[in-house]
Specification:
Order of helices and strands: HEHHHHHEHEHEHEHEEEHEHHEHHH
Strand order of the largest sheet: 1-2-3-4
Function: Catalyzes the hydrolytic deamination of adenosine and 2-deoxyadenosine.
Number of helices: 16
Bound molecules: 2'-deoxyinosine, zinc ion
Number of domains: 1
CATH class: Alpha Beta
Strand content: 5-15%
InterPro entries: A_deaminase, A_deaminase_dom, Ado/ade_deaminase, Metal_Hydrolase
GO molecular function: 2'-deoxyadenosine deaminase activity; adenosine deaminase activity; zinc ion binding
CATH topology: TIM Barrel
CATH superfamily: Metal-dependent hydrolases
Helix content: 40-55%
Catalytic activity: 2'-deoxyadenosine + H2O + H(+) = 2'-deoxyinosine + NH4(+); adenosine + H2O + H(+) = inosine + NH4(+)
Family: Belongs to the metallo-dependent hydrolases superfamily. Adenosine and AMP deaminases family. Adenosine deaminase subfamily.
Radius of gyration: 19 Å
């Protein structure tokens, strides 16, 4: 589709469900805050630092990818810095045409400067509020909510789940677990997930990224996840016959039948070795098979990406058009943890009119 230039994709309304706050800082902000905090960086200027992050994250291993976060988390240890990073994330997403975003981070990783968990969540919320207001002043609109993540190798998930429930009416719409997947199955945190279910709360689980079907199965059938963070390895349960037809195993059929949202993050998967290239990424197959596909950035800094960049790559690789972009956007909005009426309002008043205007 010739008319789908980057500028058209940028101006199209987009919805982002899987974006890490500590994976999306501006390199210039890290340089400035690291100097103040006395934190040594692997590169001295913003451009070189941005390049260092994408190179270092490009290792083919999730564990090595995650090591780079030490340099972002190090500058997110005061309320002032957290608020700034959160505000800038909202501004950057709005400038990229994102109209709704759920941004996640692990509060337990931001206590080294003496903040309490409560203060961390409040500082991030202050940044989101400030960002939304600045964006509104500039004539755009964006709605941003928090997801609180617990680290899967730690033992704080129940406490973080309680924190998410405590802030459910003040900006936090859900919970997540993240970190190295192999060796840390989601059932380690069953207590947290059962608590959330009793509280009628929403959660997603990073599963099926660096580890395959057992992780997805546990996340859904033991833990009760509403969505799958990545979930890309559900393709391991799909067989393509010689005539090209697809056969779904029981788990893949369950995921599709139940419309379980897949928070796919194509460029991140290439960096961590979960996919070889965009053209070979399972998102092509999963879209054809009508899974509940959503497109996400994961870590804009480490993956050198944006929603526009992710979608442009899919347009190039799979010939996606405006209908496909609208489909993944509506899929994502339907799958958001925001209340139903608010989701519907964004679909009907922002997304659909936005795409209609682009069709001219
Ligand atoms: O793609 C990911 N898989 C697992 N863990 C991740 C991924 N991206 C970021 N994280 C981790 C590193 C961050 O410090 C943490 C909270 O955002 O989540
Ligand atoms: Zn992630």
């Amino acid at each position: 589709m010739g008319e789908l230039t980057r500028e058209v994709i940028r101006s199209a309304p987009k919805v982002l469900l899987h974006d890490h706050l500590d994976g999306g800082l501006r390199p210039a902000t890290i340089v400035e805050l690291a100097a103040e905090a006395g934190h040594a960086l692997p590169a001295g200027d913003a451009e070189a630092l941005g390049q260092w992050f994408t190179d270092a994250a490009d290792s083919g291993s999730l564990e090595r990818y995650l090591e780079t976060f030490q340099h972002t988390v190090a500058v997110m240890q005061t309320a002032e810095n957290l608020q700034r990073v959160a505000r800038e994330a909202v501004e950057d997403l709005a400038a990229d045409g994102v109209v709704y975003a759920e941004i996640r981070y692990a509060p337990e990783q931001h206590l080294e400067g003496g903040l309490t968990l409560e203060e961390v969540v409040n500082a991030v919320q202050a940044g989101f509020d400030e960002g939304e207001a600045l964006v509104a002043d500039s004539g755009r609109t964006i709605v941003v909510r928090q997801l609180l993540t617990a680290m899967r190798h730690q033992a704080n998930s129940r406490q973080i789940a309680e924190l998410a429930v405590a802030h459910r009416d003040t900006g936090a719409v859900g919970f997540d677990i993240a970190g190295a997947e192999a060796g840390y199955p989601p059932t380690r945190h069953l207590d947290a997930f059962e608590y959330l279910q009793r509280e009628n709360a929403h959660f997603t689980i990073h599963a099926g990224e660096a580890f395959g079907l057992p992780s997805i199965w546990e996340a859904l059938q033991w833990c009760g996840a509403d969505r799958l963070g990545h979930g890309v390895r559900i393709v391991d349960d799909i067989t393509i016959d010689l005539d090209g037809s697809a056969r779904l195993g029981r788990l893949a059929a369950y995921v599709r039948d139940k419309r379980i949202p897949l928070e796919l993050c194509p460029h991140s998967n290439i960096q961590t070795g979960a996919a070889a290239s965009i053209a070979e990424h399972p998102i092509g197959l999963l879209t054809k098979l009508r899974f509940r596909v959503t497109v996400n950035t994961d870590n804009r800094l480490m993956s050198g990406t944006s929603m526009t960049h992710e979608l442009a790559a899919l347009v190039d690789a799979f010939g996606w058009g405006l209908d496909d972009l609208q489909w993944v956007t509506v899929n994502a909005m339907k799958s958001a943890f925001l209340g139903f009426e608010h989701r519907l309002q964004i679909i009907n008043e922002v997304i659909k009119p936005g795409y209609a205007a682009l069709r001219g």
